[in-house]
């Protein structure tokens, strides 16, 4: 059914019968043909446009065929429809321009709702839709606020009154008194607006905001403190969109609803949260595949300048591992000197019997801890955590038990039975940051078949937090722990071949001898 444009008998209101739009006061709407679609029209609220400083639409890009005259007659084109609607919306009493004589008088008043200016001759206009202007003849013109069109010309100061009381008989003062009435914004009997929409908005990083401000008795709306990337919708200043580029955190936005009787101001809190944690990928190793990164970027975490000095040299290593076989000694992780014979390094590997072996030092001088029994079964995921408290690691035979105790090993959150060994009573030297690798020693000892996921390193001893890190065998967002890792590689999730991103630091791994197919959909 077409929307009928009907002006009431008094000529001061227009109703769009058949739509959900409210009744509008006279002299506040203008219809125009849309600049993009010639068969559609826009109906602009002139009063709200002046208040808000931009076009406010009551109808936007609506086909002209959706409208009809008051008697149901259809329009032939969009131009005819826009002309008719504009005429009906601006037809109260005087539609042209009256030139007043010295004998003419007009008494101005405001109705009980403070929304309509009443003229003694029977005409009426919406508040904020008319304006008094001094003309060159030292008389007063009453003009339409939005267009400047003259409605009444040459009203004498002596002929103007407000609520039956003559205005001050000075032209400038009289004009100000009239305009004070025409822009009346308060009444003891009126009701100020109240914002009723939610004042807390929750958004996930990367999502787009779609929020609309709702207020009872709201007429105009204002925003302040909008974060960069959030804006209002054309034709609907109450609606906010955007925000997909916002950083994680909280933002405060001030919203204001206004009407003729007052305003309501609320602070909206926009919370931007990290996307939900999801672990779906890992990196597969075979043949001579390995990862390498700039070891110098971890020198302050895994490196040391001499024998262990305490907590400042402490660290924790974490990874998930899924072996395919144990055909040879397979190095899972390596950090340290490029000279493996004489230089200090950290090495974690599996043995041919499926045990886990950890070594600290050089090939000649080292502390070594190995699981007594087979630690892994091919085809299953395992969580590995190694902690170092930063203490000394050599080279006194009497202190060997202390050296071994510096390191704790956990598989699936539990300490396995260990066999301890040493080379020349341990390592008392430095650990240099020459090489940082996953899946390779100096040469050989690659992971000949297996998958690795969620590698993380802390620059502290997290021995007391192993249970939280392991999390009962469920991978989780490590950055949300009480102590977040210093470096964290998701090993596939969020990565693009050929770089495995360090999600905390900048030590990004490069995939060597691999293809994009090495990032697989398999995770613990």
CATH class value of the largest domain: Mainly Beta
CATH topology of the largest domain: Jelly Rolls
Supply the number of helical segments.
6
Number of separate strands? 41
Q: What does the largest sheet look like?
A: 9 strands, antiparallel
Low-confidence stretches: 185-189
Q: Identify the strand order in the major beta sheet.
A: 35-32-31-30-29-36-27-40-39
What is the alpha-carbon Rg in Å?
39 Å
- Mean pLDDT, rounded to whole units? 91
Strand content: 35-45%
Compact summary:
The chain is mainly β and 524 residues long. The protein has four domains: 3-89, no CATH class; 98-182; 194-273, Sandwich (Immunoglobulin-like); 282-520, Sandwich (Jelly Rolls). It contains six helices and 41 strands.
Could you characterize what this model shows?
This protein is mainly β and 524 residues long. The chain folds into four domains: 3-89, no CATH class; 98-182; 194-273, Immunoglobulins (Immunoglobulin-like); 282-520, Jelly Rolls (Sandwich), CATH 2.60.120. The strands form nine sheets. A nine-stranded antiparallel sheet has the order 35-32-31-30-29-36-27-40-39. Strands 26, 28, 33, 34, 37, 38 and 41 form a seven-stranded antiparallel sheet that branches. The radius of gyration is 39 Å and the shape is elongated. It starts with a strand and ends with a strand. Mean pLDDT is 91; it is low at 185-189.
């Amino acid at each position: 059914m077409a929307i009928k444009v009907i002006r009431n008998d008094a000529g001061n209101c227009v109703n769009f019968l058949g739509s959900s739009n409210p009744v509008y006061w006279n002299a506040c709407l203008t219809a125009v043909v849309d600049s993009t679609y010639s068969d559609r029209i826009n109906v602009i609220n002139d009063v709200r446009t002046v208040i808000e400083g931009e076009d406010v639409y009551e109808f936007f890009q609506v086909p002209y065929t959706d409208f009809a005259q008051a008697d149901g007659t259809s329009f032939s084109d969009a131009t005819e429809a826009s002309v008719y609607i504009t005429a009906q919306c601006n037809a109260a009493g005087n539609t042209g321009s009256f030139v007043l004589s010295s004998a003419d008088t007009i008494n101005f008043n405001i109705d009980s709702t403070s929304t309509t200016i009443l003229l003694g001759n029977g005409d009426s206009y919406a508040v904020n839709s008319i304006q008094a202007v001094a003309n060159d003849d030292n008389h007063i013109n009453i003009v339409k606020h939005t267009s400047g069109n003259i409605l009444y010309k040459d009203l004498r100061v002596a002929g103007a009154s407000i609520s039956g009381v003559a205005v001050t008989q000075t032209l400038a003062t009289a004009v100000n008194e009239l305009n004070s009435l025409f822009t009346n914004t308060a009444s003891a009997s009126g009701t100020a607006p109240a914002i009723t929409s939610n004042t807390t908005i929750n958004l996930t990083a990367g999502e787009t905001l779609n929020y609309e401000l709702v207020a009872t008795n709201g007429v105009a709306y204002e925003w302040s403190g909008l974060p960069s990337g959030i804006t209002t919708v054309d034709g609907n200043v109450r609606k906010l969109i955007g925000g997909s580029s916002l950083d994680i955190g909280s933002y405060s936005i001030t919203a204001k609803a206004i009407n003729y009787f007052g305003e309501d101001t609320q602070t909206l809190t926009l919370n931007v949260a990290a996307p939900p944690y999801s672990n779906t990928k890992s990196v597969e190793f075979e043949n001579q595949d390995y990862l390498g990164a700039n070891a110098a970027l971890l020198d302050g975490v895994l490196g040391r300048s001499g024998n262990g000095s305490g907590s400042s040299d402490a660290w924790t290593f974490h990874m998930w591992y899924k072996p395919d076989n144990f055909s040879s000694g397979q190095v899972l992780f390596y950090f340290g000197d490029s000279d493996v014979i004489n230089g200090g390094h950290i090495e974690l590997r599996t043995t041919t019997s499926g045990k886990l072996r950890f070594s600290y030092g050089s090939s000649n001088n080292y502390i070594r801890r190995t699981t007594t029994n087979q630690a892994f079964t091919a085809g299953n995921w395992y969580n590995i955590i190694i902690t170092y408290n930063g203490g000394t690691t050599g080279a006194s035979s009497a202190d060997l038990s202390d050296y071994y105790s510096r390191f704790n090993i956990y598989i699936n959150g539990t300490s396995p039975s260990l066999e301890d060994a040493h080379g020349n009573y341990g390592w008392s030297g430095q650990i240099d940051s020459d090489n940082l690798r996953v899946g390779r020693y100096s040469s050989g000892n690659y992971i000949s078949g297996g998958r690795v996921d969620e590698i993380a390193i802390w620059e502290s001893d997290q021995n007391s937090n192993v249970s939280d890190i392991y999390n009962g065998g469920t991978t989780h967002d490590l950055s949300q722990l009480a102590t977040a890792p210093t470096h964290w590689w998701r090993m596939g999730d969020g990565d693009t071949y050929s770089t495995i991103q360090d999600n905390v630091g900048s030590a990004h791994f490069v995939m060597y001898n691999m293809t994009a197919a090495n990032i697989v959909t398999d995770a613990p």
